[in-house]
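Sharing a chain and its predicted structure for anyone who wants a worked example. Both blocks are below, sequence first, tokens second.
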Amino acid sequence: MDGRVVEGTGARLPVARPSDLVEYAEVPIADGDLVDRAVRNAAEAAATSGWASQPPRERARAMRRWADLIEERGTELGRLEALGSTRPIAQAVSGDVASVAEGIRFFAEWADKLGGDVAATRSDNLGLIVSEPYGVVGAITPWNVPLSMASWKAGPALAAGNAIVLKPSELTPFSTVLLAQLAVKAGIPPGILNVVHGTGSTGEALCRHPGIAKLSFTGSTRTGIAVMKAAAESGLKPVTLELGGKSPQLVFADADLEKAAACIAGSLLANAGQACVAGSRLIVQRAVAEQLATLLQTLLSDIAPGPTWLETTSFSPIISEQQAQSIERIIAASLEQGAACIFGGGRLEGHRGAFYQPTMLMQVNGETAAVRKEVFGPVLTIQSFESEEEGFALADHPEYGLAAGVYTRDLGRALRAMRAIKAGTVWINRYSRTLDFILPTGGFKSSGIGKDLGRQAVEQNLRHKTVLVDFGA
């Protein structure tokens, strides 16, 4: 707050390392008073620092310096991320930190690109559509990729000229603090980027604060509904929500099966399936279902679990014992419903943390718990189909529509699938994002509202004012 660490009088919450469940630190929980102080501090900084009113290229320069510092302190950031999250250190340093720095640079370049428009009006009028920052934006980020999610919220908000109050997950609170400290060091005015720690009550206080003009949240659909409700009840704030997913991976018989298997396994193994876009529903044409399942079993056997701070670790722990038990309950319910476990299905022994085996379930249908619910773990359900239309129908989930993968050598079929699948992102013959930050991400149905990344993310941090000037005689 105002470039300084400020502790309130609230309770403190122990924070455990997912790799061994050892409590290694405490985090103070911001109560309503401290949230109020943070929002007021952000509003004052927005009003007095000149962040929004300065030449946009100055904002861009400060953000680029921030990105440079993120790279310079990359090893430190990566170590901090790995210690307290599910991100293996090799992936955190070379992947997450590098992506965060590039993302900040991408958003910085939009600072002077979205100024507004001149509208077509009668000749003695001048119609302007002026873009303005909201003022103070509130953001709440999840625990699965803390650094990346913080940059997805802060980058577009700051580029648009806003101040921001950001609450990271109480399970992974610390790397976001260092990120904010580096922002101040880079020349972003104190108070423009604020971090508050806490639990759900802290998040609710942030959502309901009258000084917050816009909200952005990434997390579960259930919590997203609560965020939207709080926003509606406290001043009709606009919201951006990236929520849950049960993303299909649709494989046709003409696909490159080895490539498809590598993409599917990579999606399941990345962060141990703890990602909203995890491709957790395999829908495969019956003629190649057995062959693909065999390829997947080989790939899913090649894992290196271990503490996230070891360079040799590539397979993540589950974030907490509570989450591991949630996975177990969904698997047990699915088996009771008739599902057959053909691979995995339990804990990985010999680890102090909650590590869960990559798991494959067959004999499932649309009512099976692991098909309906977001597992948030390394669990893949397998359904087969004959016709293209049947495959498209199985790919459609009644609740979620975040992402999808399609594997086929037939361009026409790929395009038909792209049209048929109701999801915010459709990958063809791949299943992952790139560093092309220009591509927005966001879901359909209960998977969310609005977009992160891309031009759209910056636009959603701007509001538009109509101006009509009459200069006729």
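Comments welcome. The domain at 248-435 is CATH 3.40.309.10 (Aldehyde Dehydrogenase; Chain A, domain 2).
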